[in-house]
Amino acid sequence: xxxxxxxxxxxxxxxxxxxxxxxxxxxxxxxxxxxxxxAVPGIWRVTRQAATIVHEMGHVFASLLSGRRVSGIRLRTDxxxxxxxxxxxxxxxxxxxxxxxxxxPGLLALGxxxxxxxGHAGAALTVYQVILLLALLLSRNLVGIVSCLAAVLLTGxxxxxxxxxxxxxTVVALGVFYALAGVRGTLDVWxxxxxxxxxxxxxxxxxxxxxxxxxxxxxxxxxxxxxLLFLLISLASxxxxxxxxxx
Length: 247
Fold this sequence. Notes:
By secondary structure, the protein is mainly alpha-helical.
């Protein structure tokens, strides 16, 4: 048992320390390819699930940091999701939980890209794998389990092969994808609020921005304020990601 644990620790350590320096032309080509994953509607309907996983994990980490108890996450076939947590029905912890979802993809993109640009591509991919594995463990329905398992296997093979160049290019692709997904996801929730008159009241009231507006009586800011915050964080994160890649 001790030998197995030691071998696993050494495997993770080896992959954590992988360094890579992707070529500028390859970075540009990867960026162009990844743009299609978020720009083409038919492709986005599939790849958006990867952004939803990170969105829900943003809620999870915020819940844990604020002292709430997380029961699990559920992903749906329409690429929406929900995080179930328990705690006080109002307060700063609940507010932080509702606010953490939409900024999460952009902030993850920034973190991965910064690590990759600093020569720590292996660490970036390892962090990403840990997030996916935690999401898999917290999944409470079949769609969530299948989605998280597919993401774990897809990037896990690359992580396990431990080829520096492949790891570096994967981190670039993940950074660009989540940067763009963060912006697009934020624009999607903006669209819900801008077309509120044509939508069921429950759909508008159920967005993270609407829930944040009701989460803490001490800070009763309206949903548009939180929508603006989501957009600013997502745009700032995406700008920083592209600056790190192309400056």
